[in-house]
Amino acid sequence: MSQIIVITSGKGGVGKTTTTANIGVGLAMRGNKVALIDTDTGLRNLDLLLGLENRIMYDLIDVTSGRVPYNKALVRHKKHDSLYLLPTSQVKDKSAVNPDDLIKLCDDMKKDFDFIIIDCPAGIEQGFKTAIAAADMAIVVTMPEISAVRDADKIIGELGRADKENVKLIVNRIRPQMVEKGDMLDMEDINEILSIDCIGQVPDDEAVVMATNRGEPVIAMKDSIAGKAYLNIVGRLCGESIPFFKPPKEGFFAKLKRLFSMLF
Amino acid sequence: MLDLLMKVFGKQEKRSGKIAKERLQVVLIHDRASVSPEIMEQLKNEIIAVISKYMDINKNEMEIALANDSESVALVANIPVNSLRHAK
């Protein structure tokens, strides 16, 4: 039984494509056969994050327009050989694919894959509607920032109107020190406001930038904290119950020190 | 000196994370309350149906709308009553 997951956010730049790449690699590392579909037509990036930009022959539009079968357009990952990318076109625009095209394509691909993961464009227009059409699960990516949470709320509303019931949340780029000081929305705030099931809390990590530079998703970097967070997300997607990391409680001396620093 | 005293004894300045949360809660009330005209019309008709069971109301003069200030959203209805029905 294969699962079709769409990664969406509303706001741009919160890490949809990074999340797609990492979840894809993570699921493939567990031995699943995974296809990633980039639907951000005109702003193609998933290929870069996976280091596959030089191996693209055909794209999503070639497939949906019937020019080539999908297996001809799929690009196999070098390291993780059960991971495939269906890149999108860099020259066409988002109206080149419609919801029915994607539903039909995913239906065809289901027999070959355990997971199909769709990277959604930013916004709530046609591209969004196309990307979510075939999905049986939606993951909303947001950041602990006022505009990103507002847009996530809007997207959650749109997903509800489209009768998508299985909606999960990932909060990306959390800065624990700022949260501790009270200068960043914390998970409790975000959960209270959005009230959907959270499956991931990813800390802001320089390793993500370095991984992107190299075209190797951070989940494969064993000692990065963001990589660890993505591994946990993949585990939760596979039905494991993994507790969220909680920062250690402030000790007695730290409290005393803080009290003193407040007084003097 | 006053500043220091304020810091020690006075109210602590609100952290920006808390401000963000409060602003979000307000803005989302507004966002979520942007109901489509069709739903407003439907709501209006159902309200008329319920109230008409108890009172004779002027449907044409009736007004119903979402009103909001900076902190809350209210459903405001102005329903002129022609006459009350007899209690049974």
* Helix-strand pattern of chain B: HHHEEEE
Query: How much is the average pLDDT of chain A?
Result: 93
Total separate domains of chain A: 1
- Would you tell me the structural class of the helices and strands of chain B? alpha+beta
Helical content of chain B stands at 40-55%
CATH topology-level fold name of chain A: Rossmann fold
Radius of gyration of chain B, CA atoms, in whole angstroms: 22 Å
**Structure annotation, total helices of chain A:** 12
How would you characterize the largest beta sheet of chain B? 2 strands, antiparallel
Q: Average the pLDDT over all residues of chain B and give the rounded result.
A: 80
CATH class of chain A: Alpha Beta
Class by SSE composition of chain A: alpha/beta
Q: Report the count of strand segments of chain A.
A: 8
Radius of gyration of chain A: 19 Å
Query: Which residues of chain A form runs of ≥5 with pLDDT under 50?
Result: none
Strand content of chain A: 15-25%
Q: What gross morphology of chain B would you assign? A: elongated
Beta-strand fraction estimate of chain B: 15-25%
- Name the poorly predicted regions of chain B: none
Major sheet attributes of chain A = 8 strands, mixed
What would you say this structure looks like, in words?
The complex is a heterodimer of chains A (264) and B (88). With 264 residues, chain A is of the alpha/beta class. Chain A has a single domain, classed as 3-Layer(aba) Sandwich (Rossmann fold). In chain A, 42% of the residues lie in helices and 16% in strands. In chain A, a hairpin with a 6-residue loop joins strand 3 (75-76) and strand 4 (83-86). In chain A, helix 1 (16-29) packs across helix 11 (225-237) and helix 5 (99-109) runs parallel beside helix 6 (126-133). The radius of gyration of chain A is 19 Å and the shape is globular. The longest helix of chain B is centred in the N-terminal third of the chain and has 17 residues, at 16-32. Chain B is an alpha+beta fold and 88 residues long. Chain B is elongated, with a radius of gyration of 22 Å. The mean pLDDT of chain B is 80. Chain B has a domain at 36-88. The A-B interface holds A 145-146, 149-150, 153-154, 157, 178-179, 181-186, 189, 193, 262-263 and B 7-8, 15-18, 20-21, 23-25, 27-28, 31-32.
